[in-house]
Amino acid sequence: MSKIYEALQNIQLEKKAGGALTASPMPPPFAVGGEAGLGLEDEMLGLYKVIETLLPHQKSRVIQFIGAREGEGTSTVVREFARVSAQLIGHPVLLLDADRHCPSLDRFFDLQEKVGWLDTLRSGGPSGSAVHRVGESKLFVSPGCNSAVSTPEVFNSRFENLCQDFRGEFDLILIDSAPMVLSPDGLAIASRVDGIVLVVEAEKTRWQVVKTLRDSIARVGGNILGVVLNKRRYYIPQSIYQHL
Q1: Domains parsed from the chain with CATH numbers
Q2: What's the sign of the alpha-carbon dihedral 168, 52, 201, 138?
Q3: Is the pLDDT of residue 2 over 60?
Q4: How would you label 45-65 residue by residue, b for 16+ Cβ within 10 Å and e otherwise?
């Protein structure tokens, strides 16, 4: 059984029981290819299956990925989940960069000077102009902007309308959010998406910090689907962990 699946199942049970937050680990490497790549893809496929199970009646799903602090690896996790969903499952996927403090998708996918989704909201331009295809794949990217200026008006009905436009074109709209410690934008988005995946760095992020993030999201009405425990360190060979 996928370790991500177990983590997501755990948090669903805890939401019903009112218990403390726990999570099962996922393997640390995110490089594609070889045994590490196959392990990663299995984990991402498991994550996709759980999201599909928890949101069974929606053809198109808007999912937010967010961490409590910098360095959790949120952007890496959501990028790989987007890639696997588009490449192996074959669904059209849109990856949206909502981290205005440190946007990374434009650099990673070489989208400099491309129109982003914030640009279309501010200008009233067509939403399609902010969507850029990655090669010949079914993965599409919408970059953000690098700005310290808060734009709370962006996360109102105009943001919902934008997502509604995207729903007509994509099976998955994945949002890469800034860490809660850096920006309130993630909380502003939380109540407007179908589900939220928390990304936690193993052995670094204290459980109290994760609990604060979970409670903050719950207060604004966000639907937490589960937790990905990232960057786990293996102190014995990884093959042994698979038999524990």
Answers
A1: 59-229 (3.40.50.300)
A2: negative
A3: no
A4: bbbbebbeebbeeeebbbbbb
pLDDT at 197 over 60: yes
pLDDT at 36: 39
Q: What's the alpha-carbon Rg for the chain, to the nearest Å?
A: 17
Residues in the chain: 244
Q: Which of 203, 190, 208 lies closest to 68, judged by CA?
A: 208
pLDDT tens track for 104-146: 777 788 877 678 888 888 777 888 888 999 988 999 999 877 6
Name every residue whose Cβ is closer than 8 Å to that of residue 117 and which is 6 or more positions away in sequence. Answer: 96, 127, 130, 142, 143, 144, 162
pLDDT category at 238 given cuts 50, 70, 90 is low
Neighbour tally for 3: CB within 10 Å = 22
Please give the pLDDT value at position 242.
Answer: 54
80 SS3 class: helix
- Residue 86: pLDDT band with limits 50, 70, 90: very high
Helices (H), the chain: 3-17, 34-54, 74-84, 105-108, 117-123, 157-167, 185-190, 207-219, 238-241
Contact of 143 with 114, CB cutoff 8 Å: yes
* CA distances in angstroms from 64 to 143, 175, 242, listed in the order given: 15, 5, 29
Is residue 215 within 8 A of residue 134, CB to CB? The reply is: no
Token code pair at residue 148: 């310290």
> How is residue 179 annotated by DSSP?
P
